[in-house]
Amino acid sequence: MGIRKKINLVVCLVFCLGGTLFAIIALREWQSTGRILKTGKLAQGMVVEMARRPRKVGETVTPNSFAPVVQFNTEMGEQRKYYSTLYTAMQTHQVGQMVDIWYLPEDPAKATMEGGDAWVLPLVFGIFGFAMCLIGYPWLFNILFFSKQKQ
User: Fold this and answer.
1) What is the tally of structural domains in the chain?
2) Which domain holds residue 110?
3) What pLDDT, in 10s, does the model give residues 19-41?
4) Which pTM value belongs to this model?
5) CB 50 within 8 A of CB 95
6) C-alpha pair distances (Å), 55 with each of 66, 82, 84, 117
């Protein structure tokens, strides 16, 4: 096998494995969020802060993206905070705004908020995983099929 074919195979395998990994992560996150929404308890929470996205390594500009921090009470009266990971440049929430939070009663740290928090991560990882698999697996089958035909 020539060097070019080996490089093609390595790149192809990176697409296949990367796409599969992204798809698995998307599926696990979708199932986790689905479990919270199906079996979790609904609570009213209040946005207590709009947290600024932390700076990335080497970033010199102050980020202009914010995510809500929501305080809510469990059915047992325990006060908890939910830190959204969905940072946006548009102010989607205001401090003092009431929002719905779903949480697992046995583990209130596992929670999700109404809106994009529940589906953004699985959707983005699913799209990337699907796209990478759509490129990688046909390419892999093509490499394997044509390498067997030439032998």
Assistant:
1) 1
2) 3-149
3) 999 999 999 989 988 899 899 99
4) 0.72
5) yes
6) 12, 20, 16, 21
